[in-house]
Amino acid sequence: MFNESFLEVIKHEGVVSVTSWGNENTHVANTWNSYLCITADNRILIPAAWFNRTQKNVNVQNKVIVTLGSHEVQGKMGMGTGFVVDGIAKFLTEGADFDMMKEKFSFLTRVLEITPEKVRQTI
Fold it and tell me: Could you tell me if 30 and 2 are in contact, meaning their C-beta atoms sit under 8 angstroms apart?
């Protein structure tokens, strides 16, 4: 699901945007590339300390759009590349993935889990 360029992007710092929508307006929350953890079964785990509006939206409808990139990774037309991930989101408050993430990121209160449906490289 994730190509080498995607995996290389998350090794470099950059902003990740998570877009959600529910009964209210669209909401965008940001985090860092270095906070993303990719599981063996290609889910994205993100430590969540805030993400309150995102969680409210996900409780209404669980689709999200995630964008990320790095100017330090070769893209389609030169240096710099970005990705868009369409996925299904849920918040974890317990379990093995939660415990693993809590060890890495002591500040989290929940883990945002995203199961990708579509991943595309944009530049």
Answer: no
How many domains does the chain divide into?
1
Supply the DSSP string of 54-67, one letter for each residue.
Answer: HHHHHHH--EEEEE
Q: How many residues does the chain have?
A: 123
Q: What is the pLDDT of residues 26-57, one digit of tens each?
A: 999 999 999 999 999 999 999 999 999 999 99
CATH number at residue 84: 2.30.110.10
Q: Which structural domain range is residue 10 located in?
A: 4-121
Residue 14 contacts by C-beta under 8 Å, 6 or more apart in sequence? 32, 33, 68, 69, 70, 71
